[in-house]
């Protein structure tokens, strides 16, 4: 049996010009919004940047990663290039 979910409290309006009641965030939601999601975004941006930089190196030395392409490169005389 799971315990009943805790009801979120609504924030009371402070003045008449506010249109909707805002619910208070749970600690989990706050952690996710303020820390976790920005951290994931930063990690994804950094990984994308690193892989795009490595693409140039891979394009230059991709013949080393396969025995067949290495043989073809040597056979064609393009190893010096």
TrEMBL record:
Residues 1-26 are annotated as: Disordered. Residues 16-26 have a biased composition (Polar residues). Residues 1-14 have a biased composition (Basic residues). This is Uncharacterized protein. It comes from Danionella cerebrum.
